[in-house]
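Proteins fold reproducibly. Take a sample protein:
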Amino acid sequence: MNAVKRAMAWAGVVLVAVFGGSATATADPNMPMGSYAAAEIMQRPVGEVVRVLRALPRGHSLAIGDVSDRTAAGRLSGLRLRRAMAAGEPLRAADLAPPVLVRRNARVTITWHRDALSLTDMGRALEDAALGEAVAVLNLSSRRTVEGRVTGAGRVAVGGR
């Protein structure tokens, strides 16, 4: 179903915020600078809304059977939910977070790089974290807690350059 919206045109440029679809607008390019005119905006949906098929808890990693659109399911698989969702609820980008690559209490490889020098040690993650996120890790050799960034599955880089 098309929705007709009104927008204001300023010097032939139409500013419109449309979510969940695409929009076309026309305005008279011969309008004097600074004058205003109404323009008709036709909004068209881009595709079907992706919905969760069952109630899912916060932090759940999406799988193919969790969403209504099989095509989108492949792209969404592995992403985790930022909030709990009820069955049939539409899935928005703001509801999704990157997959956890470092799990709390899991063993991780800690690396430190500086110029040509590279040191590697084992540690234990003190919290869950996704790619690029900061994470606290207990160095198993020194028993000290260090802060690093997740660089991959089970890998954390600390300090250095």
